[in-house]
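Q: I'm teaching a short session on how sequence maps to structure, and I want students to see two examples side by side rather than one. Could you give me a first protein with its sequence written out and its structure tokens following it? Keep the formatting plain so it prints cleanly on a handout.
A: Of course. Example one:
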Amino acid sequence: MALNPYDLYDVRSQLSDEERMIQDSVARFTDEKVLPIIGACFDEGRFPKELIPEIAGLGLLGSSLPTEYGCAGLNSVAYGLICQELERGDSGIRSFVSVQSSLCMYPIYAYGTEEQRQEWLPRMAAGEVIGCFGLTEPHGGSDPANMKTTAKRDGDDWVINGSKMWITNGNVAQIAIVWAQTEDGIQGFIVPTDAKGFTAQEIKHKMSLRASVTSGLFFDGVRVPDANRLPNVKGLKGPLGCLTQARYGITWGPIGAAIACLDEAVKYSKDRILFDRPIAATQAVQIKLAEMARRITLAQLLSLQLGRLKDAGRLQPTQVSLAKWNNVRMAIDIAREARDVLGGAGITTEYCPIRHMLNLESVITYEGTETVHQLVVGRELTGINAF
């Protein structure tokens, strides 16, 4: 039997029937609905909001949360496969789902009250309410403890002042999960985006994640009731716990981007004739393609094991850092090599490698830069914090 060129170690055979069914369902959505329009969306700098109802209808929003809140109740490997197939389409589509699921719905579930869960999670799972996650600030994202946004108690309310930057979904969201300094440490708040004093300003002139909405958020005396505070966590443990959830999905997503680039490079190399033979017949190109397949295979095995550890309740943040570092680096290198195989044709968005390459410049930076994750692993090895 011939091997699947994009799954050389038959990782799919290690999946359950349900996991395979979910992967196939999301793959069909990506093939039929995302790929036909995503190149144009990237060119236009437009997030395809028209896809939100179908994304919600497939159960992809908050997919790992319990069914009692209108969610799918899937395991972590299934969520990873969702991220992989969505990012095979575009990092912007996967980012939308990651933010909604891991950075907005998860903190309400993990840190909120039962009333907050019942109020928000079913509507968010249905795509009726979109969220954004306000942690990163303009003066720097790798040091979240140096937070300038404040929330001060005023009777039964909190008054929030400050700003956040590089916020995915900011201008399409109805609520923002905002982390702010209080007299009792960092706390999270559910902030309606129509609140007086709240402004979202979309960031333009991006060369990356162009099919995604990225915004700055500004809070000028924004008042929210104490009922909107997430009461079950204080300090950086709250936002960092959300980031671990999101980073886990990001370890899977770039595998999809890399597979898309390899697929395009393989097909192009068979059709491109130079010196009376396809470039696929040259050793130079075959070595490039083989190297791409090797690195994809390693990443697939890494994320599958990470997902099994997560489902067993044994996942450690350092393990997520290692996989995020490895898999995003793998994907961005493959996108660049695939662009090279395509030659001049590779600089246009008629082919996917340069679009994925540009998107991955953001993915390798957000949710912890590559350097941050390297230092997390280094700290684990030495016991010394070098931040």
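Q: Perfect. Now a second example for contrast.
A: Example two:
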Amino acid sequence: MTTIQRPVGELLRQWRERRRLSQLDLSISAEISTRHLSFVETGRATPSRAMVLRLGEHLEVPLREQNQLLLAAGYAPAYQERKLADPDLGAARAAVRQVLAGHEPYPAVVVDRYWNLVDANGSTAILTEGAAPALLAEPANVLRLALHPDGISPRVLNPGEWRADLLARLRRQVESTADPELTALLEEMRAYPCAEPEPEGQIPGRGEIFVPLRIRHGDAELSFFSTVATFGAPLDVTLSELAIESFYPADEATGAYLRRWVAAGRIGAEHTEPVPT
């Protein structure tokens, strides 16, 4: 099979249009002339390596796609892509493990660009209990775990609004990256059944400031909200695509339940017995 490499000007134009910027908007932001930008996009001018990187930065193109822009322009990639186990990423691995361990007794996971599970702390077991072993096998995908009928979705008490929130996040990622693998993942997630309809618009209930995950564990109803952390100013493709999602108790009852659950040594236990009070 022959792979056809599209011209760098065409790729840059598509990224500009994806960001809903005019040539004037981008030329002002990147401090180049509109005429030169037009010549680059139409192939009448060949951008320098520095110009490709400057335009990629102002278009907020992910590092992986910036490398593709450089290759299309005839230059070597600027950003390395190393496995997380690489010795050069030792400090990053240590930081990730510190965040995961420090977040106990609350769940926290590390995912890559495609939502594959990279690492997790022990408390995450309270969320994944009961999921089919096939969904937990490496490389486990946290979206499949969340939305597949054999995953944790049967235990979720607000499946419609939680599903809508997850799919909205994935849609934004697809729009940001134009990645065909993420697009396929979005279509797969949309095809999964849901026990209740997704809300057309998120209308918060009284006192709510976020979409919670409400999930049953044994006889208890737990409620979580989450935050997502990424590495600042990464220069490695792998690090740029890692995200740490940390779950926090949305009410005191959930926090107390988790503390008792961990203290009772239930981390990783495959059961749903009530936590001792």
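Q: What should students look for in example two?
A: Point them to this: The longest strand covers residues 220-229. Also worth mentioning: Residues 92 and 239 are 8 Å apart (CA to CA).
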